[in-house]
Structures are given as C-alpha cells and as structure tokens.
Amino acid sequence: MSNLLAARSQMGMSLAFHIIFAVVGIGLPVLMVIAEWRWRSTGDAIYLDLAKRWAKGAAILFAVGAVSGTVLSFELGLLWPGFMRYAGAIIGMPFSLEGFAFFTEAIFLGVYLYGWDRISPRAHLASGVLVAVSGAASAVFVVTANAWMNTPVGFRAVNGGLVDIDPIAAMLNPAAFPETLHMVLAAYAATGFAVAGVHALFILRAPHSAFHKHALGIALLVGVPAAILQPLSGDICARYVARWQPAKLAAMEGQFKTVAGAPLRVGGLPNESARETPFAIEIPRGLSLLAYHDPRAVVRGLEAFPRDQWPPVLGVHLSFQVMVGIGSYLALLGLWVVARRVGKKEIADSRWLLRALVLAAPMGFIAIEAGWTLTELGRQPWIVYGLVRTRDAVTPIPGLIIPFLGFTALYVVLGAVVVSLLYRQMVKSPDAREDSV
Amino acid sequence: MTIAVAMAGVIVVALIAYAVTGGADFGGGVWDFLASGPRRAAQRKLVADAIAPIWEANHVWLIIVIVLLFSCFPRVYADLSIALNVPLSLMLAGIVLRGSAFIFRAYDSKRGPVQERWSRIFALASIITPLLLGASIGAIASGGVTQSLNLLDRGASNMGELMMQIGIRSWMNPLTLAVGLLTLAAFSWLAAVYLCVEAKDDALRDDFRTRALWSLAALAALMILTPTLARAQAERLFSELMGQWWSAPYVALTVIVALLAAWALWSRRFALARLAAPAVVALVLAGWALAQYPYLIPNRWTIDAAAAPPITLELVLGAVMLGSLVLFPSLFYLMKVFKGQRSGGVGG
Ligand code: HDD
Ligand code: HEM
Ligand code: HEM
User: I want to staple A127 with a disulfide (CB 3.0 to 4.6 A). Which of A111, A344, B33, B104 is the partner?
Assistant: First the structure.
C-alpha cells in the first residue's frame, strides 16, 4: 500500500467512523427534547423514561464523537500538511466557529445529562434545545469547509499560493448551501429512521407496548419530514455538481460520452477501460432534465476531461446509486406514514409498515456513508478542486500504513463496544433491566 | 503589538485553559490509578463524579488551540504536524482511549472485572497522554522540532537518519522526558487540589491533601531538574529562559505563588489552593511562551513571519470575541450548576 493510499484510507476511515457519531449528535438531542417536552406537557411518565434513555445513549455516543472528532482535527495536519499550509488561512474561519459550537454543545450536554435534579425544568429543557441547535450548527460549519474544497472561491491563486483571500466569500461558496442543507436533513432522516426501526421491531414482538409506540411516534416525527425533503435537497446538490464539478457528475452517472439529452441511469457497472456503462436501465433524457432542468441540455461526459482527472468512476457511480436508491425508499416510506396519519390510522397497526421500518433502520446511515464516499471520491484527484492534487498535499512522513492499521483496529473495537453498550442502555425493554443503573 | 502577536497570545491563553481544566481531568485518571487504602472505592467515585459532567467541555479547549493554530498560523501547524507526527499520533490514541474508557466504565456492567478493565485503560491513557503532550512541547522548546524540519528541508538523502530524528530522537530524550513528567506531575497536582475542594467528607479530603502535597514535591523536583537538563542539552532555550531582564523576577513570582499554594494546602485553606495551583501552571506555560517569543518554532517561524494574512487574523479574532460572549457565560453556568454548591463557584 503506497503512502498516499494509506493516508487516504486513514482519512476516509476516520471520517466514516466519526460521521456516525456526529449524525447521532445532531439528531438524538432533537428526539430527547421532544420527549421531555411531551412529558412536561402531558405528564405521561413514559415520555420521561424515553428522554432519560435517549440521554444515556447520547452520553455514550457524544463521548466517542468528541474523541473521534479530535482525531480528525489533528489528522488534517498529520496526513495533509500540504493542504493545511495552502488552505488553513482561508477555511480556518468555519473551523473556528465550529470550535465555539462544540463548546456550547459540550457544556449544555453536561448540564442536560447530569443536571436533571439540579436545575429548573425549564432550564433543563432549554439546555436540551441548545445542544440540538449547536449540534446542527457544528455540522453546518464543518460541511462549509468541505464545500469550499469542492467549489474553492474567495482568493486568487498565484504560483502555488493563495493571495487576496476573502474568508467570508470562501464560506459562502456555491456548494455551501446545498451541502449543508442536505447534510442536516440527512442527519435527521438517518437518526429518526434508525430509532423508529428499532422500536418498530419491538412493536412487532409486543404489539401493545405504549413505551415503544410513543418512541416510534417521536422518531417518525423527526425522520419523516427530513426523508421527504431529502430528494429535493439532493436535486439542489446535483445541480451544483453539474455546474461546478462536471467530471464528478459524469462519474456519478457513468456518462463517458458528451451528448445532448443524456439519459438517467439506474444501476449499471461503469467500465473505465471500455468507456461504457452496461447493465443500466436508462431513462431517456432523464439526466439532462434533472441536472439542468432541460431535457435537451448537453451533458459533458468523462471523455471531455483529461484521463488523469477522472475520479474513480465505478466507486462514485455505485455510491450514488446506493444513496439515491435509499433516498427513494425512505421518501416513499415517509409518504406511507403520512398517508396513514392523514387517514387517522395507527401506524403500529400495519405490520407491513412496521416491517418496512425495521428494514429502514440502518439505511439512513448507509446512505450517508455512500453520499460522502461519492462526494470525496468524486473530487479526486483533487483535494482542493481544480487547484491542489491530493498527492501533493500528503505528508512526507513514511510508513503511514502503521497509523492507518492502528486507528482502524482501535475504531473496530470501539465500535463493537459502543454497539453492545447501546443495546444494554437503550434497547432493552424497561421491564427487562438487570444490573445497569 | 501586531494582531498576529495578539492571536498567538490568545492561543497561549487557550492552551493554559486546557492545561488547568482538561489537564486536571487527566490528573484525575492518575489518582484513579493510584487509588489505595480503605477509601479506594470512594476515591475513585469522587474522581469520576468530578470529571463526568465537565470533561467534554474542558476538552474543547484543545480543539480551540488546534483550530486557532491552523487558521492563524497554517505553516506552523503544518510543520508541527510533520515534525511531531509520531508523538501526536500516539497522543491521539491516548485521547481516544481515555475518553471512551471513561464513558464505557460508567455505562457498562457494574460487575467487578468489567469495571476494573475500563478503569485500567482509563488510567493508563490518562498517564500516557500528558507525557506525550509534554514531550511534544519539550521537543518544540528544545529545538528538536527545528532540527527535524531542517533535516527534512535538506532533502531526505539519509532516510535512516531522518527516521531516527523524527521517530525518536527529537521527542524522546532526557529533556523532553523531563518536560513530559513535569506535565504529568502538574496535571496530577491540579487534580488533587481540585479534589480536596470537591470531597465532601474529611477523611477523603485528607487523602487528596496528602496526594496534592506529594505531587507538588514531585513537581518542584522536576521544575529544578528541567532547567538543569536544558542547560546541558538546549543551551539556547536555557539562555532564553533565564537570560532576560525579567527572568529573575518572573521565576521569583512563580516560586512565591507555588509556595503560597503549598502553604494553603498545608494549612487546609483549600479554596485558596484551588486558585494558586492553576496560577502556578499558568505562569509556567506563559513563561515558556515568553521565553520563546517572538518564535513559534525556535529559529524557524516567528509569529509575524508565520501569520496568515491580516484579514484572516481579524476575522478569527472577531469570531473569538463573539464566541467568548457565548462561551464564558455558558462556562460560568456549567460551573455554577456542578461546582457551585460546594466550593463557592471557583472555576476549573
Ligand atoms: C440520509 C441520507 C441521504 C439520503 C436519503 C440522500 N442523500 Fe445525498 N448525500 C448525503 C446523504 C443522503 C450525504 C452523506 O449527507 C451527502 C455527502 C455530502 C453532503 O453534503 O451530503 C450527500 C451528497 C449528495 C450529492 C453530492 C454532493 C457533492 O458531491 O458535494 C448529491 C448529488 C446527492 N447527495 C444527491 C442525492 C439525491 C438526488 C438523493 C435522492 C434521493 C439523495 N442525495 C438522498
Ligand atoms: C464525515 C463525513 C465524511 C466522510 C465519510 C468522508 C470520507 C472521505 C473519504 C472516503 C476520503 C478518501 C477519498 C480518497 O482519497 O479517495 C476522504 C478524504 C478527505 N476528506 Fe472527507 N469525508 C467526510 C467529510 C469531510 C469533511 C467535512 C472534510 C473537511 C472539512 C473532509 C476532508 C477530507 C480531506 C482533507 C480528505 C483527504 C484528501 C482527499 O482524499 O481528497 N471530509 N474523506
Ligand atoms: C460531515 C462531516 C462532519 C459532521 C457533520 C460533524 C459534526 C460533528 C458534531 C455534531 C459533533 C459533536 C457531537 C458529538 O460529539 O457527537 C462533532 C464532534 C467533533 N467533530 Fe465533527 N463533524 C464532521 C466532520 C468533522 C471533521 C472533518 C472534523 C475535523 C476537522 C471534525 C471535528 C470534530 C471535533 C473536533 C469534534 C469534537 C467536539 C467535542 O469535543 O465535543 N468533524 N462533529
């Protein structure tokens, strides 16, 4: 494994790990706050039990999110000093703001988790709201930095450096709004459906548990609107990609030739050497329509770009297919839930809907991993699109395979422990508790 | 004073804040490891209860140091990340293990062996991480980092030499080891002092008073040893440290505050000790920064040469000020909720 490949793998692995905890850190506080608010307004003790249980999960997940996030802030330098030297001054702004968002989040999380009987009910609920708001804010800031890597603006590039930089313009880059909106919605959709799926499973086993029905209701309240909006925000993303990163769009679609009225491909396996994408279902003019809102628009294929500026086509195309497939499934499921609500029917009475929800439990997270793989692989070979190549940013330190393997092993173990603790703290039914406190 | 110098000052302040808050949380891990005697379980519980609600917030100071460093001095951040790649990577592993083992212990089965396993990991990581943090600081101050970077600039004609220098020599030598131990002793001392205030019964408080006095003795020994080693090994650092007009009064001030802390501990004026102890640590860190001024990395990057363009510095300074408006009231509230009732609301 080359040093560059080891660095890329370590970065990707660390981010893929962190994003799971970060997403829960954005979504779960919303669930906690709704549960606590319902408890205060209805007096139904089940809601209190729910809020406390979710808070336990949040405590574990936040701690791992915090330490894995720390690893990332160091890794930006440990793995990509060339990138930080080049771009630190221009993307430092969102990271600094993020730092303060973390502070607010960590402080009020401490207050929320350990302050149940130390502060007034109103202050407690307000702390929960602050945790939720600052969680979303930190996602917005860090994704803004990533958006700049995709659409770098706010400077002039002069022999290998940046001059006349404008960090505010850089923060307001063209990808910032589409990416942050899509990410925050993704976090709510993924957390909401994951929690809903777990409780749907329990309802299938014990159809009369009020506990699980309450939980399901709150989880769907958060997950469903986000899932229904997600394809729309995905469309906004796709249009910025079409405009600013045409090579990424071509790779997403497995489009090798430049044509007018390009088709939308469902499935298919792009073959870089044959320069074609067999086994796909093609929807005529679909891509031109979606990406440019014009069925006759010209879509530039990969052949319009030098061969050494192609991203890895297969990986990008497949990740996109996975994400869109899941996005469609979750949106349809969301509409189903809405339909039952409108028809005043209990969600829990439809066993098929419950089964479909169980199936959806891991899907939001899979879509998030796929979406990020698409974003990051699709940007290759650039670390800053069109300006700095990834290979020029990597550290000169040899032997990067060692930290890569070390951190991978560490994270595998942590992941396994977290899963077992979450099961112990959150999933086990209230009546089936053993030695845990 | 240029705005770059102001930002460097802000970074030093954030580092001090990390040392006196987050550092003490690592010190807590040391006392978990060394818990002993009839009140062993009570000692551990006191440590855990004191850390639990605040360690994540305290930890963010480190993140602030990092993001400010890479926004305002990107070249220094890049150079340090290269030259200190090995100790920083190991330190990260320590940070990950400390935080996760601590939280796992709280939420895992309460059976003895399970608890014992997480305690071990928590404690060992709490010991190793400050050692590596200190060694990294020692490597910057002593010029080890500068040597590594110079070697790298000359082109890696001699790969073995480079690996030796970056992998081991620059950060693992008597001087950096002494700085590492000093950091560990300082963090342990801070924790013991804070725990004296936190303890609710007298016997437990006495346990931590004894610990605070012993760790202060260790700290004092290391504060004498480190300059001695510096004189032998890093003459420049030593002369910077001791050769300024303000050196003698500064050292005298530090010694006086340390004596005050010792007296406060001895005479059981714990609230006073709780103020004096972090002041000592702050003085030592600020002394290092002053001695190194105007360099961020000795003989390589001065503050002004390494600084990002003024627009960045101005914006980040603005963000820091705006952020502080939110941060300090929030921190104050956190301390009031969790430390207020017992200690009269002293920070930390
Ligand atoms: C629950 C998760 C989820 C779901 C259901 C979807 N996405 Fe997504 N998508 C993400 C989660 C995600 C993500 C992981 O959050 C990404 C990575 C970067 C980003 O901002 O969001 C992403 C990126 C991303 C990008 C690339 C942006 C870039 O390269 O910068 C596009 C074009 C889309 N998405 C489009 C869609 C479409 C058309 C969907 C329709 C069904 C869709 N996404 C559903
Ligand atoms: C948390 C969700 C994210 C995931 C799962 C993710 C995934 C990945 C993957 C798989 C790679 C390796 C790509 C390759 O080299 O082929 C990568 C690289 C990288 N990512 Fe991300 N990423 C995420 C978010 C971010 C964010 C928010 C930033 C920056 C602010 C970022 C910065 C980088 C950098 C600097 C690299 C290395 C350079 C490169 O390969 O282009 N990533 N990421
Ligand atoms: C899309 C990608 C990312 C999102 C949405 C995200 C979001 C979050 C959120 C919400 C948290 C706090 C919640 C928790 O602790 O569980 C968090 C923690 C953290 N993240 Fe990320 N993050 C992302 C990528 C990154 C990257 C690329 C970095 C590094 C530069 C980073 C650095 C951190 C740090 C340092 C923390 C710890 C804060 C603390 O101590 O509380 N994150 N992240």
Answer: A111
